[in-house]
Amino acid sequence: TNKPIHSYVIEEKAVEIRSILSVYEEYTVLAFRYTANLKNVWQDILWAFQ
After folding, report:
1. What is the mean pLDDT of residues 38-47?
2. How far apart are CA 48 and CA 42, in angstroms?
3. Integer angstrom CA distances of residue 33 from 10, 23, 25, 26, 45
4. Distance (Å, whole) CA 10 – CA 48
5. How far apart, in whole angstroms, are the C-alpha atoms of residue 44 and residue 39?
6. Residue 38 to residues 8, 14, 41, 45: CA-CA distances in angstroms?
7. Structure pTM?
8. How far is CA 30 from CA 3, 24, 33, 50, in A?
9. What are phi and psi of 16, to 5 degrees?
10. DSSP codes of every residue in 1-50
11. Alpha-carbon gap, residue 17 to 26, rounded angstroms
12. What's the CA gap between 29 and 26, in Å, rounded?
């Protein structure tokens, strides 16, 4: 076969990077939701004190 030796490594890295990015996206979404919820809770608490 005339397939280059390094192509497999590059493919592996691409898959790794892609999975890292998707995990990072999930965490970002979760963190965003979490902060949004915290903000809502905080506003509720402040509103209750007024």
Report:
1. 88
2. 10
3. 34, 15, 12, 11, 18
4. 56
5. 9
6. 44, 36, 5, 10
7. 0.48
8. 41, 10, 5, 30
9. -60, -50
10. ----TTHHHHHHHHHHHHHHHHHHHHHHHHHHHHHHHHHHHHHHHHHHH-
11. 14
12. 5
Which pair of structure tokens corresponds to residue 6?
Answer: 């390094």
**Which whole number is the average pLDDT over 23-43?**
88
Max CA separation in the chain (angstroms): 75
Per-residue burial over 10-47, b if 16 or more Cβ lie within 10 Å, else e, is eeeeeeeeeeeeeeeeeeeeeeeeeeeeeeeeeeeeee
